[in-house]
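Inverse folding, one chain.
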């Protein structure tokens, strides 16, 4: 079986399950590194350039969601799959709000794990391509977008409005960056879903959830004189508008 040149880090306290999951993943990827604790993972992250993380929500030495938030600050572009034996809907929400891109409840299906890994790697690559294509900046630097008081930097996935950090999750940032790359233009639901969540159906509610969150953040920090807003154009898609009136395209 041909391996993909991808480096994965698996953080799983249960050694038996760690061995099982590693057995599933290892034949498909060139490097799978395993550890049991967040402290071990932090040391490994300092010296290795990982492409994706899989992490148990319940960790031995720290609070899982707090570790996810730390990852989002230190390694904002690193995709994160949360795995857990806890299957309550609230656990899923906690993991996703803390910064996980995907939540998988144990027991895991091998095909599902591999499908999500591949989907997140494709999404990361698609996002990098969007950054290369955008090049919208008032200073001529790639990866920097500045429009209507909004500033986004792809290098560290940070977004500011009115000089205040919006503190977005990686998924929220990627959606806002994609919309800001085409200001005052409608991007279809299908395009947004295909770029950011390629494994999800175009009818999935995940896009609506992130649009709602972004609207709340923009509304919270938007200065009175700013016209920037995330609008829905029925039949056309979503648009980051900088105009006093909703755009028509």
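Residues assigned per position:
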């Amino acid at each position: 079986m041909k391996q993909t040149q991808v480096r994965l880090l698996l953080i799983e306290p249960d050694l038996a399950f760690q061995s099982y999951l590693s057995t599933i993943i290892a034949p498909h990827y060139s490097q799978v590194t395993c550890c049991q604790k967040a402290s071990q993972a932090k040391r490994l992250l300092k010296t290795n350039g990982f492409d994706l993380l899989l992490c148990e929500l319940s960790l031995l030495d720290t609070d899982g969601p707090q570790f996810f938030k730390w990852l989002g600050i230190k390694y904002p572009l690193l995709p994160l799959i949360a795995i857990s034996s806890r299957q309550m809907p609230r656990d899923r929400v906690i993991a996703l709000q803390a910064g996980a891109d995907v939540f998988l409840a144990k027991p895991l299906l091998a095909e599902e794990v591999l499908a999500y890994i591949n989907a997140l790697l494709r999404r990361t690559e698609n996002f990098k391509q969007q950054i290369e294509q955008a090049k919208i900046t008032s200073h001529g630097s790639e990866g920097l977008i500045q429009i209507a008081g909004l500033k986004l930097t792809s290098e560290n996935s940070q977004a500011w409005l009115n000089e205040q950090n919006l503190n977005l999750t990686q998924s929220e940032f990627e959606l806002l960056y994609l919309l800001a790359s085409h200001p005052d233009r409608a991007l279809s639901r299908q395009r947004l879903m295909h770029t950011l969540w390629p494994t999800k159906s175009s009818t999935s509610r995940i896009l609506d959830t992130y649009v709602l969150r972004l609207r709340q953040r923009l509304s919270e920090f938007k200065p009175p004189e700013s016209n920037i807003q995330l609008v829905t154009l029925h039949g056309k898609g979503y648009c980051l508008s900088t105009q006093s009136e909703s755009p028509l395209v």
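The first strand starts at residue 4 and ends at 11. The two ends are 47 Å apart (CA to CA).
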